[in-house]
Specification:
- The chain is mostly beta strands.
- It has two helices and 22 strands.
- It folds into two domains: about 180 residues, Galactose-binding domain-like (Jelly Rolls), CATH 2.60.120; about 150 residues, Galactose-binding domain-like (Jelly Rolls, Sandwich), CATH 2.60.120.
- The strands form five sheets. Strands 1, 13, 14, 16, 17, 18, 19, 20 and 22 form a nine-stranded antiparallel sheet that branches. Strands 2, 6, 7, 8, 9, 10 and 12 form a seven-stranded antiparallel sheet that branches. Strands 3-4 form a two-stranded antiparallel ribbon.
- The longest helix is centred in the C-terminal third of the chain and has 13 residues.
- The chain is globular and about 70 Å long.
Length: about 350
Amino acid sequence: MTDLQAPDDWRALPDLAARTLGGAVLAANDESFAEKESLIRPYPVVHQAHTFGHKGQIYDGWETRRRRDSATGNSGGQDWAIIRLGVPGTVSGIVVDTAYFTGNYPPQISVDACRLDGHPGLTDLLDTTWHPLVPVSDAKGDSVNEYAVPDTRRWTHVRLNMHPDGGIARLRVHGSPVPDPAAFADLPLDLAALVNGAMVTGASNAFYSNPIGAIMPGLPASQADGWETARRREPGHEWLDVRLAGRGVVRVAELDTTHLKHNAPGWAALEAHDGSAAFELLPRTELRPDTPHRFVLGNDRPATSVRLNIFPDGGMARLRLYGRLTDAALAEMRRRFDEA
């Protein structure tokens, strides 16, 4: 088993600032050499030496000018960028990746956060009170700089600060979604959606891709956008565990193998868990490659988690489990939202 949510490893939690979750870089005080939007690109940093544009070497990242203190001529002050989290939530760790920034990286960084629900404008964000998540801390060039965050409050935006200037390739904000339950009302919802508070808690194999992809929003973009295992060479099957957004009754399941043409599972089954009780949601069922499958379930039992079993191996682009939260689960979600 691959443990994807060990309590002491916040790196396994989703990146709440990811562009694929709806994150956005809203503003920066300076982006003279390289654009701020690069900070939350989902793919690895790319670099080709000696590729010069009108602003110098082309970097896959955010790079500011050299700061100069008006009185002394030396570096002073700080540069900043404001990022809206794609999914608001609690932040457990920050990654500041300075890949390929060697003589132009910031020697120190800090990260602040704020909570402004709704759709605040830039003026609102500039005028609000920001709270430190990562104090002014040392950073290394061409490195993945990691900072644990001992904070349990809910945030909607973060501000990345460079002291005093330089370049950063990527920012990752790892944490746990805390959605606003007011949007759920009494409507059916995807109980397995990351944006609704669900989480992948374990997988038998995660060789080709992070299983979190299976519960990401939107349509799968490619074969790499989802969960895919290695080829199984021994008896048995692979599985994926999902903690639901809350205790609820699952009535419709979608198992999407889009883009998986020669590596889709032959069959799949769904097993639900409600505390220590387990029951079948979907019996072992044949799947087709490159196909979104929808199954109406004759189920009226609530569950807190679901295991997707695939036979014998392969991939799943998306898993959707539509249903309703129980009254108690919705009340607990409201309590967490109000107190976070």
